[in-house]
Structures are given as structure tokens and as C-alpha cells.
Amino acid sequence: MSDQQTGVEDTTAPTDSPSVLVVGGGFAGCVAALAAAREQPAAAVELLVVADDRFDAHSGTVDVLGYTGDEPVEVPLDALGTLPADHPYRQLGRDRLRAALSMFDAALDYRGGATERNALAPTHAGRVRPVARYPAGMAAGLVSRDEPMRLVGFEQTPDLDASFVADRLAAQLPYEVAANTVTFPGTVTEYPSGPVLAAALDEDEAPSGDVGQPDMDLAGAVPPDMDASEAMSPMMGGDDGGPARDPLVERVRPLLDTEGRVGFPAVLGLTDHDTVRAELADALHADVFEVPLGPPSIPGRRLERRLHAALTDAGVTITHDTVTDVETGDGRVRRVSLSGGQRAAESVVLATGDLTGPGLTTDRTGIHEPIFGCHVELPDDRSDWTGSTPLSEHPLVRAGVSVDTDLRPLDSSGRPEYDNLRVAGRLVGGVDYDAEQSADGVALVTGHAAGNWSVP
Ligand SMILES: Cc1cc2nc3c(=O)[nH]c(=O)nc-3n(C[C@H](O)[C@H](O)[C@H](O)COP(=O)(O)OP(=O)(O)OC[C@H]3O[C@@H](n4cnc5c(N)ncnc54)[C@H](O)[C@@H]3O)c2cc1C
């Protein structure tokens, strides 16, 4: 088996165990590798990942189906019939989706699995968003809990304007949503500040930024009669290098009225999140929850860490490498070359994402899947890729690889291209992932099926 970090060995020699190579370490690839390893523990399952920030764009919640048209979906499994017949949910079916969710629930300690209804979670834009699964740290913030809440923002986290969010939520909810903004203990010169604040809470040490050389570019932003440290003063909460948790509690405790729950920007620790949240809740005598922020998302990074822990437990080899070449023949993938060696995996799962990542590339001639050259379904005439108005349907957003019911990529005449190659996640075409808010659910169900079907 290959070296865990470098993938330097050549595994082209046949082995007795079935072997599966999963290309792409986003949510879909992780699920596919996990499903293969759990389905067939004797299989040699290898997940190829590149160091990127895909989970930084992940809210940490799992969307299955948030909307059909403009309408929020209450029970995703009941709404599948409203989707087009070739949608992956329709192709794979409710039972397969249920099985994929069960595997996720068993492998990761997430909430939401006790019901098939979507939960409603607040966003940092003051919206209410339907989600199928959410981490424990967001549970107390669900808006279905009919109880006032207080949001506490940090000066150093302008992505969450607590008053703005509270006003917007209060307009939609039958109870009070109060808000305050406090200065996080210590000095923070980085923006976005999430990773620094999370580390400060993990280590219980207030950050001490270098005000003389701030990471933020203040050139031109500092008035001539003000020095840099004065300009940075909103970012400095005192207590540099001292503890972070107690001073934060001291700033928040006097603000709490009768609210039994208090929400913070989602930076409450990365590696020691459970302890941080429990300590804050204990000291504030209130349930503590997080409101997800934009990238870099700390709950997204936690999800990635949990997935990798589950993969390691399941015996999956995680290799940091990328595909450099492939050899195909007789309708099969024969060999996959990496920078650090070659693989003759019996089955390959391609989970490299869509146009928002390197999974699909575009040039003057069209949109391409760059590794296997899979056919990408799009109208021939480029002017038909987008609708006539910004609000009309844009076929481009559904660009991706068409698959058969076994998730094998189809060529331009609708025939499976390779017997032993399956496609999972956002690379699967025909879905408007953002409008439906279904990217995670499709990644789950296609990843689960592709992983299961890749082992005998
Ligand atoms: C712009 C954006 C917004 C998003 N918004 C939300 C949101 O609001 N809520 C939410 O929950 N999730 C959100 N997500 C997360 C996303 O929708 C989910 O991750 C989804 O489940 C799709 O996952 P995927 O694994 O198919 O694709 P991706 O997450 O794109 O992962 C594909 C992975 O494959 C890797 N890869 C590509 N080519 C190669 C190669 N040759 N070799 C090795 N690796 C390769 C890529 O580097 C990447 O890591 C967002 C993602 C993006 C990009």
C-alpha cells in the first residue's frame, strides 16, 4: 500500500484485495472512500487529495434539498418527485439517499438525523436556511426553538454584524432576537480573523498581533494625524497573551438578560471546539451556539477533520497527490499516474468538483473534464449557455458530466464511457446545486453509491 503522505509506491501489481482509487478529497470524495471502505473492509481504498481550501467554503451544515423553485423544502425525501427525472436523487432513489444519510450519521457525530424534516438555521446574512444535518454547536440556534436569543458579534469579525442579523431574524420570527458586539480579547491584525480567534480559544490565549506590521494593508487607509496602532484600536481588545476565554465571558455575561441561548460567530475553537463551547455555556448559564460565517469557515474545517478521522478509522489511505496521466482501453480505466507513482485500481471514483474548482475547466472550445476527458453535457451553441435575462434559467450552472444509473460517465451518444469509472458530487451534471441547495446531499448519495458499487 502507498505511503500515507507521499504516495510514492507503485501499486500496478495485481493484489488479492479489490482496490478503489477515489480522486478528489472534497465532501463527495470523502464519502465515496468511506462508503467503499465500510462496504468492503478488505478493500484497499485510497483517497487522493490536494491541499486546497474546499472545506473553507463549506458551512459545516449538510444541505440535502433546501428549495424547489423559490419554495423552502420541509421534508427533502418527500420533495424528490418534484425534481427532473434525470436528477441524481430521482435516479438513485429515496432508499439510497436514506442509506447515505445513515452512513453519515453513523460516522460523524452530527444532529438532525432524528427527523426527516429540514431544520432551520440562521445565517450570517440574517436569513433562515433549511439544513438536513448540522453540528451540535449549531443546535441551540435553530429558529424552530421558540425562545428568545441573543447574538454577540466580535469587532474583529465584521462578517457577522450582530445587530443587522438580529433585526432581520426578528422580522421573521415570533420572538425577540437581541444583539451586541464586543471586542474579542487580544489584538487581531489578520482578516479574515476566524482562524486566529478559533486558535486563541483552543489555546485559551488572547492573540497578540504585531501592530507595527499588520497583515491588513493600511496604506492609504490611515489618516495622516493617526498612527497605525490608533487605526487598529477597534481590533485590540487588551489582554494580549493572557487567557482568551475568561475575558470573553466577562464581556458577554453583563449583556445577557433572560435569554437562555446566545449565538457567536462560528469561531469557537477548531481543535477543542466542544470544550470551548461547553465552558462558555457553563460560565454564561446559557446554551451557546454558532452562526456560520463565509470563508474560511471553521465549521467547514471541523467537518473535514472529522471526515478524515472517520476515513483513517475505516482504513482508507489518504494520499496527497494529483493525477498526472491516465491510461484507458477497452472501455476501462487501466492505469492512473500520479506524481508519486502509478495505480492500477480496479475501480476509480472521480469526485473532482465542478467549474468552481478544477473538476471542470473551460477554454474557447468549451467546458472540459480534464482527467478522463469525460463528455460534458451543454448546448452546442454557446449563446444558449446562459438565459436571456439574469433571472432566467442558465444551462451553464447545470454543466457537468452526465451519468447512467450506475454513475458511469456517458459519452456524447449516451453510452457509458468506462466500465470501472464512476462520478460523484458536483461533477455530476444536470443539477442547479446552488438554487436547490442540494450539493451536499447529491455528494452524499452519489459518493455513497459510487463507493459501494466500486467494491464487490
Ligand atoms: C462557491 C462554493 C459555495 C459553497 N457553498 C456552500 C454552502 O452554502 N453550504 C454548504 O454546505 N456547502 C457549500 N459549498 C460546499 C460544496 O457545495 C460541497 O463541498 C459539495 O458537497 C460538493 O462537493 P464535491 O466533493 O463534489 O466538490 P468539491 O468540494 O469541489 O471538491 C472537489 C475536490 O477535488 C479536488 N480535485 C480536483 N481535481 C483534482 C485532481 N486532478 N487530483 C486530485 N484532486 C482533485 C479539488 O481540489 C477539490 O478538493 C460550497 C462550495 C463552493 C465551491
Assembly form of the protein = single chain
Number of contiguous helices: 12
Main pleated sheet: 5 strands, parallel
How much is the average pLDDT? 89
Please compute the radius of gyration using only Cα atoms. 24 Å
Keywords:
456 residues, alpha/beta, FAD/NAD(P)-binding domain, 2 domains, five-stranded parallel sheet, four-stranded parallel sheet, 12 helices, disordered N terminus, binds flavin-adenine dinucleotide
Could you describe the 3D structure shown?
The structure is a single chain. With 456 residues, this protein is an alpha/beta fold. Helix content is 25%, strand content 19%. The strands form eight sheets. It has a five-stranded parallel sheet, covered by helices on one side. A four-stranded parallel sheet has the order 10-9-11-12. The protein has a three-stranded antiparallel sheet with strand order 14-15-16, with no helix packed on it. Strand 14 and strand 15 form a beta hairpin. It is globular and about 70 Å long. The N terminus is likely disordered. Bound molecules: flavin-adenine dinucleotide (FAD). The site of flavin-adenine dinucleotide (FAD) has 31 residues, from helix 1 and helix 12.
What's the short story on this structure?
By secondary structure, this protein is of the alpha/beta class. The chain is built from twelve helices and 22 strands.
List the topology elements:
Blueprint lengths: L18 E5 L3 H13 L4 E6 L17 E2 L2 E2 L3 H4 L8 H5 L1 H14 L2 E2 L7 E4 L5 E4 L2 E2 L13 E6 L7 H11 L4 E6 L11 H10 L24 H4 L13 H8 L8 E5 L7 H12 L2 E5 L6 H16 L3 E4 L2 E7 L2 E7 L2 E3 L3 E4 L10 E3 L2 E3 L7 E2 L22 E2 L19 E3 L9 H4 L2 H15 L3
Parallel strand pairs: 1-2, 1-17, 2-13, 9-10, 9-11, 11-12, 17-22
Antiparallel strand pairs: 3-4, 5-8, 6-7, 14-15, 15-16, 18-19, 20-21
Helix pairs in contact: 1-10, 1-12, 4-12
Bound molecules: flavin-adenine dinucleotide.
